[in-house]
Specification:
Elements (H helix, E strand, L loop, with lengths): L1 E3 L2 H13 L4 E6 L5 H13 L2 E6 L9 H6 L4 H10 L4 E3 L3 H4 L18 H5 L1 H18 L3 E5 L3 H13 L5 E5 L19 H6 L2 H14 L5 H14 L4 E8 L13 E9 L2 E9 L6
Parallel strand pairs: 1-4, 2-3, 2-5, 3-4, 5-6
Antiparallel strand pairs: 7-8, 8-9
Helix pairs in contact: 7-8, 10-11
Bound molecules: adenosine monophosphate.
The site of adenosine monophosphate (AMP) has 17 residues, from helix 2 and strand 5.
């Protein structure tokens, strides 16, 4: 596995692979790898012939400077893990390589960036994500790029910008990888203290309860959510949001019809966690 620091080095490596006839895959990450990241890399390994993983803690998407400062960083460990799953290039640039002096251009996906995470973290968050992912897609020019369902709104925003800007890449969204107790894997989980770690799986339990109530015939999403809130309350968790929205438009969903994203964000012991499921009406019997 090669570690590339500059766009020029990265492009040399990708050019060689492409001229050898290989399909190029990209997995964008901010590092602190866990099994969710490794699942994306394995999927990229399976679907393409040359896997690039980017490792860049993108400053422009952090609304809270303290969150950016505390974000876990361990490049040596990440490089070992990436190597172990057959990654070809780890692209780990410095911030100056990504944002040289005079950097002035941003990408903003209207509407989809406003609700949920956009409402909580402010407009700079998804502008930062959309801009850096557009840049990474242009730097690598992959055939396929892989993202996690864990960040459902982010994946939808990226699929939309790829379509709207005619970027020649196929976006694949991969399932959320969970701990044995259901907690969605996240680089932030390492910062949960033992009490918070014990309470955090209530988020996934609440989402499973929503799935179960939909399977049992519930169609009123407000009712389903209200009936499920005690699962969070019993764990001492007050959600920042717990909402049902269209999986395509992110507009609020009152009555279940098409694919519906049910998303939760909550601080547990001071650590901000997000999780979601997609539910849909079972076909009529
Ligand atoms: P991050 O390093 O947190 O920016 O995440 C990099 C990629 O990994 C994004 O596409 C995330 O959606 C994805 N990801 C993060 N956590 C998980 C998880 N538990 N399961 C699947 N994908 C994940």
């Amino acid at each position: 596995m090669r570690i590339a620091r500059t766009v020029a080095e990265l492009r040399d490596a990708v050019r060689a692979a492409r001229s050898a006839g290989k399909r190029i895959g990209l997995v964008p990450t901010m590092g602190a790898f866990h099994d969710g990241h490794l699942a994306l890399m394995r999927r990229a390994r399976e679907a393409t012939g040359f896997v690039v993983v980017s490792l860049f803690v993108n400053p422009t998407q952090f609304n809270d400077p303290a969150d950016l400062a505390r974000y876990p960083r361990d490049e040596a460990r990440d490089a070992d893990l990436a190597r172990s799953v057959g990654v070809d290039v780890l692209f780990a640039p410095l911030a100056e390589e990504v944002y040289p002096p005079g950097f002035a251009t941003t990408v903003e996906v209207a509407r989809l960036s406003t609700p949920l995470e956009g409402a909580m973290r402010g407009p700079a968050h998804f502008r930062g994500v959309a801009t850096v992912v557009t840049k990474l897609l242009n730097m690598v020019q992959p055939d396929d790029a892989f993202f996690g369902q864990k960040d459902a709104q982010q994946a939808l925003i990226i699929a939309t910008l790829v379509r709207d800007l005619d970027l020649p890449v196929r976006i694949e969204v991969c399932p959320t990888v969970r701990e044995a107790d259901g907690l969605a894997m996240s680089s932030r989980n390492a910062r949960l203290d033992p009490d918070a770690r014990r309470r955090a799986p209530a988020i996934a339990r609440a989402l499973r309860a929503i799935e179960a109530s939909v399977t049992a015939g519930e169609r009123d999403m407000r009712h389903a959510i209200d009936a499920t809130k005690p699962i969070l309350a019993e764990a001492g968790i007050e959600p920042e949001y717990f909402e049902a929205v269209s999986a395509d438009t992110l507009d609020p969903v009152a009555r279940l019809d098409g694919d519906t994203l049910v998303a939760i964000a909550a601080r547990v012991g001071g650590i901000r966690l997000i999780d979601n499921v997609i539910v849909s009406r079972p076909p009529a019997q």
